[in-house]
């Protein structure tokens, strides 16, 4: 999950900033995408992310602990690499040209690219903690504003069921 958090922002930033999506889906482009998924350890990251999601859910909702096995089974079904890999491949093919893909692979193969892959999870975790702290600290203000808005403009009563 950590590396997904490190790779995903780069993918989204580069991909969403493009005016048009890449259209080349040649075999060499597919090979480049496979190489990118390998160099970024996407399969391993995806598998670890499942464990992190489950752990987080158990921490947030301890009442689900007796059903952890059901949730783990569900996550394994939904996050199965054999199902996800073709979808990830399609996404990468749509977002990046072959040249861009190869350039990204080349970057991640450098010492700096490897450092980025190693350190980005720390940055993402700290960023997430920062956002959580700020939102929690601001929650009383939000609640006050919501109460004021509800007083000023009360919600319409729900229609009666007939």
Using the alpha-carbon principal axes, give the shape: elongated
Low-pLDDT stretches are 1-22
> How many separate helices?
7
The number of distinct β-strands equals: 0
Instruction: Please state the average pLDDT score.
Output: 84
Strand content: under 5%
Judged by helices, strands and strand pairing, the structural class is mainly alpha
The secondary-structure element order is: HHHHHHH
Describe the oligomeric state of these chains in a short phrase.
Answer: single chain
Mind explaining what this structure looks like?
- The protein has one domain (2-151).
- It is 78% helix and 0% strand.
- It is built from seven helices and no strands.
- It has helices at residues 2-16, 27-39, 42-60, 68-78, 81-95, 98-108, 111-152.
- α1 (2-16) crosses α7 (111-152).
- The longest helix has 42 residues, at 111-152.
Give a topology summary.
Elements: H1 2-16, H2 27-39, H3 42-60, H4 68-78, H5 81-95, H6 98-108, H7 111-152
Descriptive keywords:
mainly alpha, elongated, disordered N terminus
Provide a compact summary of the structure.
The chain has 162 residues and is mainly alpha-helical. It is 78% helix and 0% strand.
């Amino acid at each position: 999950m950590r590396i997904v958090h490190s790779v995903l922002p780069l993918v989204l930033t580069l991909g969403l900033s493009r005016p048009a999506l890449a259209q080349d889906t040649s075999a060499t482009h597919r090979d480049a995408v496979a190489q990118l998924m390998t160099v970024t350890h996407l399969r391993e990251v995806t598998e670890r992310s499942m464990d992190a999601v489950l752990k987080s859910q158990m921490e947030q909702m301890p009442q689900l602990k007796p059903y952890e096995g059901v949730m783990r089974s569900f996550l394994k079904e939904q996050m199965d690499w054999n199902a996800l890999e073709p979808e990830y491949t399609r996404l990468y093919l749509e977002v990046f040209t072959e040249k861009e893909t190869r350039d990204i692979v080349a970057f991640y193969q450098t010492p700096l690219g490897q450092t980025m892959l190693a350190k980005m999870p720390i940055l993402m975790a700290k960023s997430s903690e920062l956002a959580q702290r700020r939102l929690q600290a601001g929650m009383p203000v939000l609640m006050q504003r919501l109460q004021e808005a509800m007083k000023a403009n009360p919600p319409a009563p729900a229609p009666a069921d007939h």
